[in-house]
Amino acid sequence: MISKLDESVSVSLAFDGVKKTIAPKVLIWKGRFYLIRKVGLHHKFRQGRTLFHVFSVASRTSFFRLVLNTDTLHWKLEGVSDNLAN
């Protein structure tokens, strides 16, 4: 089950200059580091003039929904689930 959240988090992001893609690599939430093992869906949407990037990612034990505000470059954690099958 996914828990809905609205918390600021820190995210390390990698840019691939050849493929022209970006991908979150590390999430820091409540003082814990989560290595991102898989990036699932990525989509964009606008609210007014602000563009948001939404990433569905998974660590070894948890699933996260991360949102990047491109105006402020701040990250939000909008959802988390720790029910991943190993």
Relevant terms:
single chain, 86 residues, mainly beta, seven-stranded antiparallel sheet
Would you give an account of this structure?
- It is a single chain.
- This protein has strands at 3-16, 21-29, 32-35, 38-47, 50-58, 63-69, 74-81.
- With 86 residues, it is an all-beta fold.
- It has one domain.
- It has a seven-stranded antiparallel sheet with strand order 3-2-1-7-6-5-4, with no helix packed on it.
- The radius of gyration is 13 Å and the shape is globular.
- It starts with a strand and ends in a 5-residue tail after the last strand.
- 12% of the residues are buried.
- The model has no long low-confidence stretch (mean pLDDT 93).
User: How many β-strands, per DSSP?
Assistant: 7
Spell out the helices and strands N to C: EEEEEEE
Output the number of helix runs: 0
Helix-strand category = mainly beta
What strand order characterises the main sheet? 3-2-1-7-6-5-4
Structural topology:
Blueprint: E1 3-16, E2 21-29, E3 32-35, E4 38-47, E5 50-58, E6 63-69, E7 74-81
Antiparallel strand pairs: 1-2, 1-7, 2-3, 4-5, 5-6, 6-7
Short description:
Helix content is 0%, strand content 71%. It has 86 residues and is an all-beta fold. The chain has one domain (3-81).
